[in-house]
Design brief:
Length: 297
Amino acid sequence: MAYKVLSAIFVITTLLFSCGGEDQVQIPPPVVQVYVTTTTNVPIYKEFIGETQGFKDIDIRARVEGYLEGIHFEEGSEVKKDQLLYTIESQPFQENVAEKQSQLAAANIERVNAESDLSRIKPLAAENAISQIDLDSAQAKYDASIEGVKAAEANLNAANIQLSYTKILSPIDGIIGGTQAKVGDFVGASPNPVILNTVSSLSTILVQFFVTENEYLQAARRIIAETEEYQVGEAKKEPNDLQLILSDGSVYGYKGKFDFIDRNVDPLTGAILIQSSFPNPDQLLRPGLFAKVRAEV
């Protein structure tokens, strides 16, 4: 009996769904998103820890010994090329110059006397009034006096150079650091200060870092392969694609470029030095900063 009831229900349900007519609801086809895949090369980047340096970091040295008499700049300020930075006591060097001037004057007097003697002896020798030995002696004395004048002039020039070293000038335009000596200090000879300061040119900042032998070989092979793609005689432009990540985690606003790879691998560390450079128009970067260079490997 139950089997007959279930059969009847199945038949009725089938008739109801099959007789929907035009009002039957059509189920829309599902929406399928289609993606087109392409093959591309994805660069791999690596970060290297480096240290910043000025484009030029020039040590200011005391080239003569003496007491420091004057400091003529503000520490941490910009200085110009040939600007006076330090003065060292000059009295001993002035006295040396005066002594050399006296020696030059004496040499010139000796030369004049020798020339006068030679001029007097030559006519007498022509008339055989004096011996040839006397003539040769006068000539030798005159020649020696000429060399004496040259030696005195060279000594005076050296003394003037030593005197000029008492005024220490800036060799470049840049920013000067804190002084390593104060007025009254004896400078110019160890253990006293010899390097008095440093002037740095900061328009461009250099960053030096090290890579391992394997990293160097991978990069070198890639550069060689890229270079071979260019036709002979066609200049290959070096892109500025290096990024600099500062110690606070920020990315520096200007990209840099490779400058050079050192000539050799350090056998003790198995690493090789690489130098890169970054524009620094705002002088945000200073020498001595630790930063990460991000480069494609």
